[in-house]
């Protein structure tokens, strides 16, 4: 028994030593350091960082760029999930119940597999590549296909990425373009799992498609939609690769599209203010946690009401 | 004979909406593909016109002069070893955390799970200096190690849940047969966990292929070491200075087409693999 115990613990320790070491050194340690450095004015070169207490956070709250980033996160956090989920539910519903009627039954459109494959494709492209793709499409002159088409029709070109009031919406359109397909597949799987009987019984009662959607599909899909919302919310706090690559001057024009990850990267690696960048990272962390907690709280309350 | 469904207005409208979205996906990709065969005059002349001839030299310039070939190979190497390491160490950690009780078991598990809650941007500054201290900046070895480390939280979380569902009777039977813990893991439990491992492998391949922040921060100097995401972004910037848009479009397609081909071949597995993340 003692030998078996030793063998068991030896096995456990042997299996954990590499993953745990890698994890502690490269993930946990930098996270802990970030909280420490957030209280310093370290520039990455000084031997001993100068402790400044909460001065970085005070400076952060006075920083207009920080608040611009927060406002952009708020817009993205609202628009990205809302439109992505709305489009995805719409398409998933069509794919599953958008076909012709046959007796009391309803069925999906033919070719639904083809549509799912096409819709999902942007999801497997690297975000940086998608950024380069859409940068070419949105080019401000006739070499961009959108403005090329407008110019050909005798209209003025639009500054999709260069107009401050429009740039964030153009970026949101690209995010939605890439994300919708994933949720179409996710929601389609959820809808396919709903027993066919539910729909047929409701149809016999004379319910049309829209009533089917709001009375049956939506309620039964609630958990899946919640998962989607959490995912898109987390994505709303990132957006680094797309904005870094696609926007003018990484977050421009004039900060119109900046987000905290972009500012953190700039501050740490272009301005060499590692302490201040870590303070931004801490702020981002608390925003993300707040979102996660609020979302879980809402879903828990809904569960209790049922 | 199955009743042929009656055509209906709603069905037609369904197809119309679905086709419109499908075109919104396909047309941008198709446009960049055609642009890869044009010259600068055609690209700036009329964005909607077809290329006058098939110019494969654009692709040759993208592969050689713009180094897309190097970037692609670098990416394949890094993602291959990154994913292999993630799956090996992730499986090992998940297995013992899910199926063994020992002092610190719960603490270690929660430590891994907590990693999913922390945005990587919180750590990116300090991480740069940790990697620097190990002499692993501008190094594929460094990038692989960091990819593994940052892929572990979700991998451990997902596979631990999966290993927990495997029947105890099988492990007991192997034990009675005298199998060691290691043999039980590699020859019995790992094969049984195959569906979960396939899903999470695909998830990790796509996640690491997509990675942009980590290579940007940790492989900033030596262009020969760059992966495709930072390479494409750089080519996009350079294209403006060198006025070589055709090579940019060719480079873009060299980055897109192989991924789409692999996707079309493995689309069912890829969809379920990415979906694995949503079922946590």
TrEMBL record, chain A:
Q: Where is the ABC transmembrane type-1 domain?
A: 70-295
> Do you know which SUPFAM superfamilies this protein is assigned to?
MetI-like
Pfam family, any one = BPD_transp_1
Q: What is its main location?
A: membrane
Membrane topology, as annotated: Multi-pass membrane protein
| Keywords of this entry | Cell membrane, Membrane, Transmembrane, Transmembrane helix, Transport
User: Where does the record place it?
Assistant: Cell membrane
Is Transmembrane helix found in the keyword set? yes
Bilayer-crossing regions = 12-32, 74-97, 117-137, 166-186, 229-247, 274-296
Q: Which InterPro entries has this protein been placed in? A: ABC_transporter_permease, MetI-like, MetI-like_sf
Domain of life, per lineage = Bacteria
What is the similarity comment for this entry? Answer: Belongs to the binding-protein-dependent transport system permease family.
What protein name applies here?
A: N-acetylglucosamine transport system permease protein
UniProtKB/TrEMBL annotation, chain B:
Transmembrane stretches in the record are: 12-34, 71-95, 107-129, 141-163, 184-206, 245-266
Describe its membrane topology.
Answer: Multi-pass membrane protein
Note whether Transmembrane helix occurs among the keywords.
yes
Major localization listed first in the record, in broad terms: membrane
Task: Supply the alphabetized keyword list.
Answer: Cell membrane, Membrane, Transmembrane, Transmembrane helix, Transport
SUPFAM superfamilies in the record: MetI-like
**Pfam families, per the entry:** BPD_transp_1 (PF00528)
Where does the ABC transmembrane type-1 domain start and stop, copy by copy?
Answer: 72-266
Q: Where in the cell is it found?
A: Cell membrane
List the InterPro entries hit by this protein, alphabetically.
MetI-like (IPR000515), MetI-like_sf (IPR035906)
The superkingdom listed in its UniProt entry is Bacteria
The family assignment reads: Belongs to the binding-protein-dependent transport system permease family.
Protein name, please? N-acetylglucosamine transport system permease protein
């Amino acid at each position: 028994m003692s030998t078996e115990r030793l063998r068991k613990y030896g096995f456990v320790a042997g299996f954990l030593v590499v993953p745990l070491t890698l994890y502690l050194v490269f993930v946990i340690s930098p996270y802990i350091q970030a909280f420490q450095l957030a209280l310093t004015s370290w520039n990455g070169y000084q031997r001993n960082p100068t402790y400044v207490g909460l001065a970085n956070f005070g400076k952060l709250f006075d920083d207009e760029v920080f608040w611009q980033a927060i406002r952009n996160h708020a817009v993205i956090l609202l628009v990205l999930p809302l439109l992505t989920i709305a489009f995805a539910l719409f398409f998933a519903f069509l794919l599953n119940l958008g076909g012709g009627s046959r007796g009391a039954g309803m069925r999906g459109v033919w070719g639904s597999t083809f549509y799912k494959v096409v819709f999902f494709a942007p999801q497997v492209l690297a975000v940086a590549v998608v950024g380069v793709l859409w940068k070419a499409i949105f080019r401000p002159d006739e070499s961009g296909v959108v403005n090329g088409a407008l110019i050909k029709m005798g209209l003025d070109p639009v500054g999709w990425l260069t107009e401050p009031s429009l740039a964030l919406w153009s970026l949101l359109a690209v995010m939605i373009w890439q994300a919708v397909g994933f949720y179409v597949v996710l929601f389609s799987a959820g809808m396919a799992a709903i027993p066919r009987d539910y729909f047929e019984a409701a149809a016999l009662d004379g319910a049309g498609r829209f009533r089917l959607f709001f009375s049956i599909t939506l309620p039964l899909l609630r958990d899946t939609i919640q998962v989607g919302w959490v995912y898109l919310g987390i994505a709303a706090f990132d957006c680094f690769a797309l904005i870094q690559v696609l926007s003018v001057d990484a977050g421009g024009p004039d900060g119109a599209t900046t987000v905290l990850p972009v500012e953190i990267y700039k501050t740490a690696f272009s301005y060499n203010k590692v302490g201040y960048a870590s303070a931004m990272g801490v702020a981002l962390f608390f925003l993300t946690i707040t979102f996660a907690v609020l979302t879980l709280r809402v879903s828990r309350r809904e569960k209790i009401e049922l | 004979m199955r009743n042929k469904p009656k055509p209906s207005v709603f069905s037609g409208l369904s197809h119309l909406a679905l086709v419109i979205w499908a075109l919104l996906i396909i047309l941008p990709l198709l446009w960049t593909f055609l642009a890869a065969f044009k010259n600068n005059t055609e690209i700036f002349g009329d964005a909607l016109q077809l290329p006058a001839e098939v110019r494969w030299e654009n692709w040759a310039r993208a592969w050689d002069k713009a180094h897309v070939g190097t970037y692609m190979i670098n990416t394949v190497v890094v993602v291959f070893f990154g994913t292999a390491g993630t799956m090996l160490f992730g499986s090992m950690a998940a297995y013992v955390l899910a199926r063994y009780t020992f002092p610190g078991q719960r603490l270690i598990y929660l430590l891994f799970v907590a990693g999913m809650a922390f945005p990587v941007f919180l750590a990116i500054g300090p991480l740069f200096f940790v990697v620097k201290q190990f002499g692993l900046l501008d190094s594929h070895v460094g990038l692989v190690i960091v990819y593994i480390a940052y892929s572990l939280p979700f991998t451990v979380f997902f596979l631990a849940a999966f290993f927990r569902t495997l029947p105890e009777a099988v492990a007991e039977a192997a034990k009675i047969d005298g199998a060691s813990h290691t043999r039980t893991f590699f020859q019995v439990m790992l094969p049984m966990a195959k569906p979960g491992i396939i899903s999470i492998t695909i998830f990790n391949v796509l996640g690491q292929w997509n990675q942009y922040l980590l290579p940007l921060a940790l492989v900033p100097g030596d262009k020969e070491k760059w992966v495709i995401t930072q390479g494409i972004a750089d080519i996009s910037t350079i294209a403006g200075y060198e006025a070589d848009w055709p090579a940019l479009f060719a480079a873009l397609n060299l980055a897109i087409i192989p991924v789409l081909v692999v996707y079309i071949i493995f689309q069912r597995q890829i969809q379920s693999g990415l979906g694995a993340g949503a079922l946590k």
